[in-house]
Amino acid sequence: MSKKLVWFRQDLRVKDNPALHHAAKSGEVICVYIEAKKQREQHHEARAKVGLIYDSLLLLREDLNKLNIPLHIMTCDYFDEQRALIKELIKDKDADALFFNNEYPINELERDRGVEKELGADGIDVNRFHGDMALEPNQVKNKQGDPYRVFTPYKKAWIEVHKTAPIEPISIPDKQNANIGEQITEDFSQDYRQDLWPPGEQAALERVDKFLDKVDQYKSKRDIPSVAGTSCISPYLAIGAISSKQCIHALLNHYDGEEQKLYGNTWFSELVWREFYRQVLIDNPQLTKHKPFNTDAKEVWVDNQEAFDAWKEGKTGFPIIDAAMRQLNQTGWMHNRLRMNAAMFLNKLCLVDWRSGERYFMETLIDGDFASNNGGWQWCSSTGADGAPYFRIMSPLSQSQRFDPEGEFIRKLVPELKDLDKKSIHNPSSEQRQEAGYPEPIIDYKESRKRALELLG
Ligand SMILES: Cc1cc2nc3c(=O)[nH]c(=O)nc-3n(C[C@H](O)[C@H](O)[C@H](O)COP(=O)(O)OP(=O)(O)OC[C@H]3O[C@@H](n4cnc5c(N)ncnc54)[C@H](O)[C@@H]3O)c2cc1C
């Protein structure tokens, strides 16, 4: 039987994996994952994410081995070398076809075009699939066939497509009648908070299952950082240990197949935001070159290294911002409400270029994902697709009072303030700051807001 090589990338799962599924239907499958270490550094991706990937791969191998499918774990420096390694493996294993699921950032697209061209010239059949979005890219267009630039109509159109073509996750392949043989293992493990982010597909599926028990409270709790009101599934989506299709389908099952309940659900909406930002990236590859989506938006950023450093360290003197940044630094993840607050603080109030913040998030987040991170930063800086209006500037004080009213979240992450009462914890007096060893605010909020409105308007 002819052999098929499946190239795993950001799709580290056995279930709902189109490339794996279709390869297994057409022959004996061998799998490979190749970590391009220096390329990943160039993309500023966090070590924590790499750690989660490596550990998830070891579990993926166990799952594949149960199906008698081998998984080789290899490393190289850059994408170019991946191409050479794939060619070698194909030759070495006597395979006649390559299968993989698409990735959309520009370097990945160029790499894949190169692989397709080179292997095609050698007579190797290259098969590409879409496994990263619940609906295929370009399925959701407006009546003129143009891409949407605004979320709400995109979501409406998404729902219309879904109604006519419901999504169904793909099953796992059947057990092969083959020997696993020796498997290459090149270690690229990294430390990360495994206590918070247990690796692997099973952990991801269990997380969604558990979250669905409380999904009806999501709308009311999702903005409160002191409670576990969101799914925390983003790191697993980022490495493809679970697909957005599986999440949406699980939610639909939770509602016994009642589509109206699915479409009205807030968690569903957030998953569609993820789809939207991916589609925006596919339609606007210039975004991967640090370009703003909205080229008319004003970009008035200044060099403010001191503010940037204080922000990164969680020492801005704004307790909610510092709590957010410390959550990021300590766990590799930050609550969505705080991502917006932290981003607007750095970009609009300190006037630091959103690209610096985007990069720091990418370097630190275990769920670092180019499309969502770039989308989030450009939304906050009002340069993005359906971005916030330029005058939307979240006040760290009122956001803190509103979303962390008892100061519980601040107390946990900024322990030097833990003894303050719920009123002063949001903005301690100079005396309280001195006593706690906590810095004075690095900016005057009112002044900074006024300056931002003048410059951005
Ligand atoms: C400045 C900024 C940077 C961000 N960077 C990233 C990033 O690098 N990676 C990332 O996955 N998300 C990013 N987000 C989006 C969002 O903050 C996270 O997806 C969310 O906090 C993850 O937690 P969760 O899994 O508990 O989300 P839930 O609230 O449970 O939502 C479920 C899923 O929906 C998707 N989702 C939710 N909100 C958004 C959103 N605003 N945009 C796109 N998708 C969304 C995510 O895949 C998320 O896992 C960013 C947002 C902002 C404002």
UniProtKB/TrEMBL annotation:
Lineage, top-rank taxon, reads Bacteria
- Region span, Disordered: 421-441
Q: What are the Photolyase/cryptochrome alpha/beta domain coordinates in residue numbering?
A: 2-134
Cofactor annotation: (6R)-5,10-methylene-5,6,7,8-tetrahydrofolate; FAD
Matching Pfam families, A to Z?
DNA_photolyase, FAD_binding_7
Q: InterPro entries, from UniProt?
A: Crypto/Photolyase_FAD-like_sf, Crypto/Photolyase_N_sf, Cryptochr/Photolyase_FAD-bd, Cryptochrome/DNA_photolyase_1, DNA_photolyase_1_CS_C, DNA_photolyase_N, Rossmann-like_a/b/a_fold
Query: Keyword annotations for this protein?
Result: Chromophore, FAD, Flavoprotein
Instruction: Extract the SUPFAM superfamilies matched here.
Output: Cryptochrome/photolyase FAD-binding domain (SSF48173), Cryptochrome/photolyase, N-terminal domain (SSF52425)
State if Cell membrane is listed as a keyword. no
What the entry lists under PANTHER family is as follows: CRYPTOCHROME, CRYPTOCHROME CIRCADIAN CLOCK 5 ISOFORM X1
Family recorded in the similarity comment: Belongs to the DNA photolyase family. Belongs to the DNA photolyase class-1 family.
- Could you tell me what this protein is called? Deoxyribodipyrimidine photo-lyase
Q: Which gene encodes it?
A: phrB
